[in-house]
Amino acid sequence: MAGFNKVILMGNLTRNPELRYTPSGTPVASFGLAVSRRFKQGEDLKEEVCFVDIVVFGKQAEHCGQYLSKGNGAIVEGRLQQRRWETEDGQKRSKHEVVAQAVTFMPKRQEGGTAGAEPPAHDEPGYDMDEQG
Fold first, then answer.
1. How many helices (H) and strands (E) does the chain have?
2. Which domain holds residue 29?
3. Counting beta carbons within 10 angstroms of the beta carbon of residue 33, is it exposed (0 to 12), middle (13 to 18) or buried (19 or more)?
4. Distances (CA, A) of 85 to 23, 25, 26, 30
5. Residue 128 domain-assigned?
6. pLDDT for 7-62, tens place per residue?
7. Integer Cα distance of 63 and 120 in angstroms
């Protein structure tokens, strides 16, 4: 059976994006995203928060590093990936993260609730994130 791996998340950054470059010069940005869900349990209104690690490659990684910061809202579209590694003392570790194929910046809210200027669009036609990772 064929699989399908697509993730769409909307939330707020939990930390500033960390921008770095691979040995071949490809930009890579990583940041955390907090995604909350509100629901009613009996008469109480509850909130549950899920923290997700995001990684993005290429020009969009540079844009994330330049325009996003902790607390900003973003919509992330991508795929779920599991990374595995071994620590120096031989323990096996793994973690799930979202490899973003598109990051949409949410407008910042100014005092009084009015939306501020949106950052420039960051979807680059013809850029395929799967070619980078």
1. 1, 6
2. 7-107
3. buried
4. 19, 23, 22, 18
5. no
6. 999 999 999 999 999 999 999 999 999 999 999 999 999 999 999 999 999 999 99
7. 9
